[in-house]
Amino acid sequence: MTLRIEDGNRVRTLTLDRPEALNAFNEALYDAVAEAVYAAADDPAVAVLLLTGEGRAFSAGTDLVEMHQIATDPDFVMGKHGFTGMIDAFAEFPKPVVFAVNGLGLGAGATLLGFADLVFMSTEARLKCPFSSLAVAPEAASSVLFPHLIGHQNAAWVLMSSEWIGAEQAHAMGLAFGLCAPDELMAEARRHAEVLAAKPVNSLVAIKRTMVEPRRAAVREARDRENAAFGELLGGPANLEALTAFAEGRPADFTAVPGA
Fold first, then answer.
1. Which of 111, 119, 183, 227 is the residue whose CA sits 20 to 30 A from 146?
2. At 134, is the secondary structure helix, strand, or coil?
3. Residues 123 and 185 sit within 8 Å (Cβ to Cβ)
4. Low-confidence stretches of the chain (pLDDT beneath 70)
């Protein structure tokens, strides 16, 4: 099982459940989450979606072992939805989305926050967008959503530096609505989700639509630009050096890589 699904008080909770891999997204998990998000959108009994992770990580982002396979194996079979399909599912989700960031959030485990309506973080959680350290481009429309959420300079640092962002810094930037002690995180996130879920779904949908509709075209365009840039860089010399270094357990050395 890679994803747990639970319902209660009109809140559907999705728990990423690959703790042995720090809940990293492989093709199977991308597909499972996308299917679950689309199902929640269509289910009239669901008013709010709550997403969290099992274990000490929210999500370590893309599974780099599988990413290396994709970059080097022309016969690798991709999933039905994949990363882009999962992002589209969140971008199109019409109801409120609450995230409970229980631990480490890397890559997609951080950029997904751009699609949340409320984010609660454990005080022990940390975020990182490791794009420059992997020699790739940003993802999940973060090049548009992060500047909108946290301002250009904060977004530039988060997306360009590949540095860790602690919970307090994320809260100060505006990436998180609330900080919670680790053992209080789910209760607090669920409490807020249930407050929203007690309201009329059609009203929630209308409010969210009026808030996000002005950015929908910009999000689609950003996603397309990012995917094109990511595709150009994936499998290139710098990216292969980064992935090889990860597999070998050493720091990447870009100094001898042409163009890096």
1. 183
2. coil
3. no
4. 71
Give 156-188 pLDDT, tens digit per residue: 999 999 999 999 999 999 999 999 999 999 999
Q: Which domains does the chain have, with CATH numbers?
A: 3-182 (3.90.226.10)
User: b vs e for 38-64, b when ≥16 Cβ sit within 10 Å of the residue's Cβ?
Assistant: bebeeeeebbbbbbbbbbebbbbbbbb
Residue at token pair 């530096």: 161
**One-letter identity of residue 148:** H
Number of residues that this document lists for the chain? 260
Structure tokens at 260: 């890096």
Give me the pLDDT at residue 78, please.
79
Condensed to tens digits (0 to 9), the pLDDT of residues 139-150 reads 999 999 999 999
Q: Compute, in degrees rounded to 10, the torsion defined by CA atoms 150, 152, 158, 161.
A: -160
Q: Copy the structure tokens of residue 175.
A: 């990436």
DSSP 141-210: THHHHHHHHH-HHHHHHHHHH---EEHHHHHHHTS-SEEE-GGGHHHHHHHHHHHHHTS-HHHHHHHHHH
The pair phi, psi for residue 140, each rounded to 5°, is: 60, 30
Computed over every residue of the chain, the mean pLDDT equals 94
